[in-house]
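Hello again,

I reread your note about wanting to compare the complex against the isolated chains. To keep things tidy I'm splitting this into two emails, and this first one only covers the full assembly. Below are the input lines as submitted, including protein chains and any nucleic acid or small-molecule components. They are followed by the predicted structure of everything together. The single-chain runs will come separately.
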Amino acid sequence: MSTFGTLFRVTTFGESHCAGVGCIVDGVPPLMALTEADIQPQLSRRRPGQSALTTKRDEKDLVRIMSGTEHGVTLGTPIGLTVPNEDMRPGDYGSMSDIPRPSHADYTYQYKYGTKTSSGGGRASARETIGRVAAGAIAEKFLRLRYGVEIVAWVSSIGDIEMKEDVVDTITRERVDSHPTRCPDAAVADQMTALVQECRNAEDSVGGVVSCVIRNSPVGLGEPCFDKLQATLAHAMMSIPATKGFEIGSGFRGTTQRGSAHNDMFVRKGDRLGTVTNNSGGVQGGISNGEPIVLRVAFKPPATIGKEQATVTYDGTSAVLAAKGRHDPCVVPRAIPIVEAMAALALADAALVQLSRHAAVLPFNALPPLQNVVTPLNPAKAQDPTKPADDRAHS
Amino acid sequence: MSTFGTLFRVTTFGESHCAGVGCIVDGVPPLMALTEADIQPQLSRRRPGQSALTTKRDEKDLVRIMSGTEHGVTLGTPIGLTVPNEDMRPGDYGSMSDIPRPSHADYTYQYKYGTKTSSGGGRASARETIGRVAAGAIAEKFLRLRYGVEIVAWVSSIGDIEMKEDVVDTITRERVDSHPTRCPDAAVADQMTALVQECRNAEDSVGGVVSCVIRNSPVGLGEPCFDKLQATLAHAMMSIPATKGFEIGSGFRGTTQRGSAHNDMFVRKGDRLGTVTNNSGGVQGGISNGEPIVLRVAFKPPATIGKEQATVTYDGTSAVLAAKGRHDPCVVPRAIPIVEAMAALALADAALVQLSRHAAVLPFNALPPLQNVVTPLNPAKAQDPTKPADDRAHS
Amino acid sequence: MSTFGTLFRVTTFGESHCAGVGCIVDGVPPLMALTEADIQPQLSRRRPGQSALTTKRDEKDLVRIMSGTEHGVTLGTPIGLTVPNEDMRPGDYGSMSDIPRPSHADYTYQYKYGTKTSSGGGRASARETIGRVAAGAIAEKFLRLRYGVEIVAWVSSIGDIEMKEDVVDTITRERVDSHPTRCPDAAVADQMTALVQECRNAEDSVGGVVSCVIRNSPVGLGEPCFDKLQATLAHAMMSIPATKGFEIGSGFRGTTQRGSAHNDMFVRKGDRLGTVTNNSGGVQGGISNGEPIVLRVAFKPPATIGKEQATVTYDGTSAVLAAKGRHDPCVVPRAIPIVEAMAALALADAALVQLSRHAAVLPFNALPPLQNVVTPLNPAKAQDPTKPADDRAHS
Amino acid sequence: MSTFGTLFRVTTFGESHCAGVGCIVDGVPPLMALTEADIQPQLSRRRPGQSALTTKRDEKDLVRIMSGTEHGVTLGTPIGLTVPNEDMRPGDYGSMSDIPRPSHADYTYQYKYGTKTSSGGGRASARETIGRVAAGAIAEKFLRLRYGVEIVAWVSSIGDIEMKEDVVDTITRERVDSHPTRCPDAAVADQMTALVQECRNAEDSVGGVVSCVIRNSPVGLGEPCFDKLQATLAHAMMSIPATKGFEIGSGFRGTTQRGSAHNDMFVRKGDRLGTVTNNSGGVQGGISNGEPIVLRVAFKPPATIGKEQATVTYDGTSAVLAAKGRHDPCVVPRAIPIVEAMAALALADAALVQLSRHAAVLPFNALPPLQNVVTPLNPAKAQDPTKPADDRAHS
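Full-complex prediction:
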């Protein structure tokens, strides 16, 4: 359904041709500084129309916080977020109304719900992802303030053009955004651009792979046996439209290795054990081990293409479809903030659950009384507007 | 945690060195014939000690139905299942107590729970999977009786030895089991056997890939936007121990294709639309489309190996570990029934949810009164022991 | 948290002093006619300022459907609903900022979240209930169209003034609304009015009891053993602000009876068994039996009163509090649509789950193919705007 | 369904006439001493056949821990618990097979599940409660060790005989068990005994009320807006068989009071604020305030009575039923440990969730590293069997 998470929980709404899209983020810890300025950047990175590579649909995608904060600080209550749909052109899809787009959601939505939206697949619209990205920005801020977590995704391949460099330890969003394809290797990125342009010219599309690293994850996250961290991360990623595959650490490549080569030997790193290699991708036994969590997500080529396709109508009559609407020849550059958001949502939820497990086993006196730490009996101080909010509760 | 599913829901318990393992399966539809004989075959396929390729640990793994049936028919109440642990040898792992096994769960379990079980990783034991397999056998029977669903998994690669033949439409469990490796291509299987034997001799291990097909899935299963069918299948599969990757349909290979080549053109198939190709792997827009659901799961090489490994102890001192316990050089042959079970559990849950959606939109009179169909006012007939139970409710 | 329900699921957001309140309703069956006009009436019944008996705070409380419908018909996707907060006067509560209101949520919210909202209790605001009421109106429409369910709540007591007449079988909302107190016995209602006025004059408050009947509930709703129908109804009702008690059927009075007097004897009623009496309140063994579901909810007197109270400040210093803000001397008249909404939400969720159980045990051919009933291969008909929407899918 | 709780979560199985009953308790914090001896006492208090007042059915009800502990200490993994059914006499109920017992679950189970168990109501059997009581004993131990929580329930009325004394602050289980009725007022208890005996002689039954206090609850438990503490407590209690009503604090009586009399004035108590009176019953705004949590649960008279009842058969034919099986004339004495168990389960789950909220807002350094507190890099100490387990982790 449209809810993800147990304690840090997002519920989204909205499709292409309605008044707006958005979400409710429940379980956000209180006392965290939060304004629209924390959320908008990722929404803007997700927004179409950013470069010649993506769809021309123009949306401002300005988010509004409806609830859950006062004076720029979270209250611990649900945060409602809305983004209006400003550029609705339902007519665009009209010519496709009799022919389900091959490999799109038109047919299955039609079959499952017995209805057909103006845009065909309805909720299988890229605009659905706005709610995820907005919620993910909040999750990410919590993880960064609380643990110093850094999440960075990048385009590692488009079609058969693949970036080889290992950037797990050093990659930054700035470097990712330095090229419109969001592939941080400039030479490879230029080849990708050419390929995408070629597909656009051919009214065709192409797929790609997004890689993502989560650095500074706390140790101990993940809830075996069914909610192992790689399982909830896989669930999160495979819920993104157009995904066909997921890998953590060595992934499919690791199946070809011997155990003696694949095993990550331990070594002492500060107050914990670390590993020399990271074929595990930061997760062992379904639980984070403190090494970078490294994952890869496969995106198929977009289904909606201008090129003619020989298919059938809803009632089975042979037909030729040449889609006319706005559409991307390649979605992976725009998928970057979506992958980052889902990573943040899965991790924040696992972190809150583990905080509970952790706190539960501490001796009674180890957990400071809440009111002595963040909220003295006179609570005015907790909302002192003269101090930077970030400094108040989480640092 | 240890529960999977919304309406068809399994909760498991048990690790290596306790009295037993098992599960509770809640939400099983009533009036379905069910005895231990429906469950035991998959448990026996999962059992170690079946061939020279697998661990020598000997377990009878006999399942007992504790509740939820009477006279061999399900009641609609939770089904409790237990399997005793008969071959507990905690001493085997004693020598490893100071050194966390590289890439095993020893360290992360220790960190997360603050404890260490006799077997090291505790719940990260292959015995944990017994509960899944038992529950999956029930889910599978429901799907088979209700929809004619067929689920077959097989070994498609071990190490770099890969089976090329496309068997999605024809593969059977009989053919899979005709070779101890469970690779249905005999020539390839022989090469796999040699490779596994080589790893065993070298006290090393090797990974592999399990492929799985779900045939005759009803159309319409999957709950966007977060519980798309590929997302819950990915969650299910990536919760299996030792998994590193998941693909549906074209998977990572599909990222290299153009949309015009990747799109599955529609064609009329009986009362629904089918597709000519199946790069979608049976799922479009997160919802099953009636084509075979095809997925692949990557298993890393087992972490526990006899070969010496230079690592450190829990307190960070350099050490050499050469594991002495019983262990498989390759887990994929035994993973077959586990993958099938998780596929069945994810699909049965999605099917129950969709039955609700479906029934909710039917005109009021379309859904026959329950008591007129399966339970007349005199209910004795529903439990008539002279008729084969399978014939009563579901066929 | 802020989500209620498994398949028919509402998530709410919003407190007093933010931009707005609202909810997301997920799992609403598709193809149901739905516009704001279906939702607004219950919101208007909930709205303050309707009579001299309630608070003077003036809100338009106009709901907007953000998503989940097209052309006035539900799509099966989440329905986003928002209601702006138009009359925010945060200054009103300023004088109470040092003294937690006795029996209000000020202190516990402060302790739990470490923060304090402008309005004191933040989410413990009557405005939180707007999301429930809006969602409940949708649930109720589904239940009415699908099953003919009728839900009516009324004020059965205020203070020690109690209505004695049994109106379970005949009560209508029109009759309930015929008196501002929403007590359908005019003579008793007049006494209640006088009592509330007396409390208002004394700057005091008074509690009361809301009764509710659900007529035409389908048989078979409720999910033992933990989600018995009376348990989810109790959960739903006791989540409403200011509730202190819940009864179903005979309630506490039933504890004084002998079994022979309390048992509801069976009698044939059409195609099902009914009961002569209804001490069970429509639920037996945690499952609806087709008789009217009858429940009662106790509301305490509102905590915020103008009268002086000798209490202490947050830091424990003796103080006298005389609340100055707008506040109701009695909330039960406005609680009527809230109780109805929660009843509808609990019942709709149980109904969807039971539709799944029901459909799962039908013989394979008993459930008509979805596309043949509501969505022929040419789906245009399903959205024929020339037919009244209510007639299309559900009648 | 058969699962209760979010982080501290019990799933139960079993009915009267199967091999056994039991449960899985997931989310139990690790490192807590736990053996069968912690669980058996409450099971024995629940067991029938303890006095002339209860049913003669004789069960040993010996619990076995199947998993989740080693050396008497919890591992953090799911705890499987089983209790065999030893005294199955299915024939006893045979004579009732054509006539649904009035006010019992026979008819609704039959309608919902389309089946009929040997015992009639199947899962609506008192034996279902064994799993709850066993799980509750574990929850209670966690709450006691971690917070010093004390939970005591007692019989406050049977029929119209009511105990008036206020024992909330002082009542102990020893005093409750000092009389077979479990009413701690000996004089009133004697009258109750006479009433129950009178009902037994008349082959009739009688209801009653169980009161329960939770002392030393931590402040801050409960998750608005839907999972307020009184809502989850109500859900928990109303899921117990035969319940018809729930009250917290002043309950229905509180509806007759003025706010000025009902409000609980604050006063400083140590490092928190307490209240002078406790009409709130320990919960304000849906969140525990540190005062004793006081609740009352109404139990109807048992439906199964020997006295003749004029009713109808399943197919609507007039019939007279005089039940012959073993049955209690009054269940409230045996309900005591069940109420205590459900209180513990609801509270433990709320406590784990709040530990997460609490820990999330602490400054980064406030939460000690887990491994430094309970598990040094050499973890052997954590399992030192020479120290009493209770002293290790939780005190």
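For quick reference: The longest strand of chain B covers residues 150-158.

B.
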